[in-house]
Amino acid sequence: MRHRSLLATILIASLGPGAAAQDVPDLRTIDRRIYEASGAVAPRHPVTGRPILNVVPETLEVRLARDFFRDYAREARAHGAAVDPPGARRARLERVFGRLVAVAHRRRLPWEVHLVEDPSPNAFTAGGGLVVVLSGLWDEILGDRDEEGLAAVLAHEIAHVAMLHPPTRVTWLGVGGVVSSDANDPYYRAAYNHEQEAEADRLSTLYLALSGYDPLAASRLWARVAEQSDESAARARFLHDHPMSAERVAITREAGRAVARYRKPGRRNPSADAILADNVLYPRVESDRYQTGDGIVRAAMAALDVFRVHRRTTRSRDARRTAADDQARVRVVGTWHGRTPDGDPGLVVEVWNGGRRAVSGLRLTLGYWSRGDLVLIDECEQHVAIAPGSARTLICLRQGMQSDRIEPRVSEVAWR
Fold it and tell me: Can you give the pLDDT at residue 153?
């Protein structure tokens, strides 16, 4: 009897002041209230329809994005960079962006795209429908005629917004400490962000297809980036928070082939809205009408989403940490000057493998120091077999410059 009275007291308290004992709701009412309350912290995902953990309401997401861009633009102008300069690039940017937004989820957001004169080949979003593109993207990667490449970049950023990535990242990294004491671990954060990037890569191909662009434009873009950049599988470990370009080629090629059926070349697919609600990449599971039991189900699904994200991220974090620990066991134990096989000045480096696997290749970073200042950073990459518990020497070409010392360190390891 005491337990029943305690439960009644808790329920009456949840109803607010002035509630009487007879006002205690029945189980259906309790479930409905759980359903309504869970909507504030576990809304339906706009793409999948599944409840997800997100405590940032849309109005706040939009305001934070605009506040961020106001400060970003002010700082850019202070450094002499033009923001939204008129011209052909700006006109094409707005046209392509509008074409993609017209087939995207969360279409009612106050979408806007900005161009900033910055040599970095990059684009990003702060959420809330706001996308920023830096001019270096054209100068370094796209060129002024590659409209489909530009569409692939914009579709990726729009996909981040549609998937609620900025607000859910804030939510997860803010409350993740409750779930795991390692939530602030840089390996954990990098692994979490990596998953979101892969999701945006997949969804971007759907937006390309529905807007009439070739969905394989994304895989071609990342193949071009892979050719122009110096990336290796080793760099994908540890703290790298984006998939490597080669990995993105595979992700977008597979997804692009799957959604190719939705493309109407050069124009919007008239069935875009229906396809957004049910497609081969992200079929929705949502039911807008409340049914008895949905409150408990919604709360349980949100909790399951938290667990699933945490488990996946933890596995990736552990793999990254293990790889980092293994690499830390491979270290330089001696250096001296010598000659390369061609007779050029060389730096002989002795490397010890204290790991549990055999090394098949190394990348060394060579720091040249003169009078206490770091004057040059060079790299030396070689295929070399080093068994566990043993050491081998290799010879790097020594740059012909005055320096007091050269400090080599192991930056990447390839394992057999």
Answer: 94
